[in-house]
């Protein structure tokens, strides 16, 4: 049974805690900002903070079970009758909840756990699945999608350069393409370490098919992805990547590693998967997309079917449903369904 808490009907104040600072383009901050806008449009007062500051509020939404563990614990001590929602990231689901006592404590203290795609449910301990809910992340299509470049078959990779993203896999795959291929890789994102910067710089020199933009404003990154023929997501793990929602909103098909976080968004039967670290497999997929128009149509069609789950209207509706659920008298109802 879920522990009883005070209700949150007619919530006047919600605090969203995220470890990503203001101005960050990390997924946690993007999610926090988008949810704040949606919740404000529903009539709530919302603040985003990097830590909980002990204030009285009606609901805490904490992004990242491990990194926000101290905030969750402090909120429970100072607001024992108020509900907590913990949003699980990829590093939570596929790492920290197995090894971190702090992350597991957040799961136990939360009244609801939010996953960004349904495949993540299998990663939770069975006794906690009853309080898990799925909210798909959305993106608004650009008003006018830039036209693809005619001179090259451009493929984008978008995300800050860090090991968990395996950011150079597409560049390595492009090295193995035949000379007649027109494929070019456009890498978008800041290098978060000196070693990543050095590697990107060396790749620019060595690989004529590779371009690196470095850090660019969000609006520029969106337009570069929207201009491309495909997006490659080569991550080793994801909780539910914002960039997939953004690409599909702009009708850009995705080639992704076969990881739980992408399967939960694109479906088990999606034909655009390759295995983690499989350079040759990705090379074959890139070449097939360039040369086989019917295959490209197939994954575009599959992407469009997934895109209907990733609309702002649906995301806001599921957020509202979550708050409505938290407002039910007693907060001690067993959850009938793992998704909203």
In short:
The protein is α/β, with parallel strands linked by helices and 340 residues long. It has helices spanning 27-41, 69-78, 90-99, 101-109, 169-175, 194-206, 218-227, 242-249, 260-266, 279-291, 293-307, 312-326, and strands spanning 13-17, 45-49, 59-63, 84-87, 112-115, 132-134, 153-158, 183-188, 210-212, 230-233, 254-257, 273-274.
Key features of this structure:
340 residues; alpha/beta; Rossmann fold; 6-stranded parallel beta sheet
Structure in words:
About 40% of the residues lie in helices and about 15% in strands. It is α/β, with parallel strands linked by helices and about 350 residues long. It has two domains: about 15-140 and about 310-325, Rossmann fold, CATH 3.40.50; about 155-305, Rossmann fold (3-Layer(aba) Sandwich), CATH 3.40.50.2000. Strand 11, helix 9 (about 260-265) and strand 12 (about 275) form a beta-alpha-beta unit. The protein is elongated and about 65 Å long. About 45% of the residues are buried. Mean pLDDT is about 90; it is low at about 330-340.
Contiguous helical run count: 12
Give helix % range. Answer: 25-40%
- Portion in beta strands: 15-25%
> CATH architecture of the largest domain, please?
3-Layer(aba) Sandwich
């Amino acid at each position: 049974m879920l522990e009883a808490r005070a209700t949150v009907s007619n919530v006047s104040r919600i605090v969203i805690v995220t470890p990503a600072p203001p101005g960050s383009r990390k997924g946690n901050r993007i999610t926090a900002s988008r949810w704040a806008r949606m919740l404000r449009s529903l009539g709530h007062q919302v603040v985003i903070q990097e830590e909980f500051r002990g204030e009285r509020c009606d609901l805490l939404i904490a992004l990242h079970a491990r990194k926000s563990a101290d905030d969750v614990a402090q909120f429970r001590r100072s607001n024992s009758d108020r509900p907590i929602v913990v949003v699980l990231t990829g590093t939570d689901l596929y790492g920290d909840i197995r090894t971190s006592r702090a992350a597991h404590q957040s799961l136990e203290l939360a009244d609801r756990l939010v996953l960004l795609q349904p495949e993540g449910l299998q990663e939770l301990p069975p006794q906690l699945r009853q309080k898990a809910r799925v909210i798909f992340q959305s993106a608004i299509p650009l008003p006018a999608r830039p036209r693809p470049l005619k001179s090259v078959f451009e493929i984008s990779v978008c995300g800050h350069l860090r090991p968990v993203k395996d950011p150079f896999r597409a560049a390595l795959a492009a090295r193995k393409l035949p000379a007649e291929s027109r494929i070019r890789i456009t890498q978008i994102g800041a290098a978060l370490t000196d070693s990543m910067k050095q590697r990107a710089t060396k790749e620019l020199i060595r690989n004529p098919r590779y371009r690196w933009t470095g850090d660019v404003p969000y609006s520029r990154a969106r337009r570069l992805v929207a201009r491309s023929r495909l997006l490659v997501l080569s991550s080793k793990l994801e909780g539910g990547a914002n960039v997939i929602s953004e690409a599909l909103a702009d009708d850009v098909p995705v080639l992704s590693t076969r990881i739980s976080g992408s399967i939960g968004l694109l479906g088990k039967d999606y034909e655009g998967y390759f295995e983690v670290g499989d350079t040759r497999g990705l090379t074959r997929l890139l070449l097939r997309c360039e040369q086989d128009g019917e295959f490209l149509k197939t994954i575009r069609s599959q992407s469009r079917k997934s895109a209907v789950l990733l609309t702002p209207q649906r995301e806001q509706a599921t957020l509202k449903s979550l708050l409505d659920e938290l407002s039910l008298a007693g907060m001690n109802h067993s959850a009938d369904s793992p998704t909203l």
